[in-house]
Inverse folding.
């Protein structure tokens, strides 16, 4: 059920900060959610310390990603370093794992 909910939420996005969903598959009692390859590493595996410029670039891009998520009335509910992927070569940040996310009504 989480995979189905996550696929519905990912289908809403068109953002560089959220991996694009390629396919959602159900087979018997198994589920598979296929997304684009982010080609980076999660922040929990990142080597510290970072220089000031790289730290600020990462922080600003995380805020931009969250702003896009929240603009669509979605609350991720599991933001942590493990769910933030950073590609050091491109500087791109992507938020992953929307299994706990909730879409709020506009009320």
């Amino acid at each position: 059920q989480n995979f189905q909910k996550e696929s519905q939420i990912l289908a809403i996005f068109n953002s560089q900060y959220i991996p694009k969903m390629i396919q959602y598959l159900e087979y018997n009692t198994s589920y598979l959610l296929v997304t684009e390859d982010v080609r980076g590493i999660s922040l929990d595996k990142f080597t510290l310390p970072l220089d000031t410029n790289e730290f600020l670039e990462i922080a600003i891009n995380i805020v931009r990603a969250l702003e896009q998520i929240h603009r669509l009335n979605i609350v991720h509910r599991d933001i942590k370093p493990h769910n933030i992927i950073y590609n050091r070569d491109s500087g791109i940040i992507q938020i992953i794992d929307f299994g706990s996310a909730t879409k709020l009504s506009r009320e």
The mean pLDDT is 91.
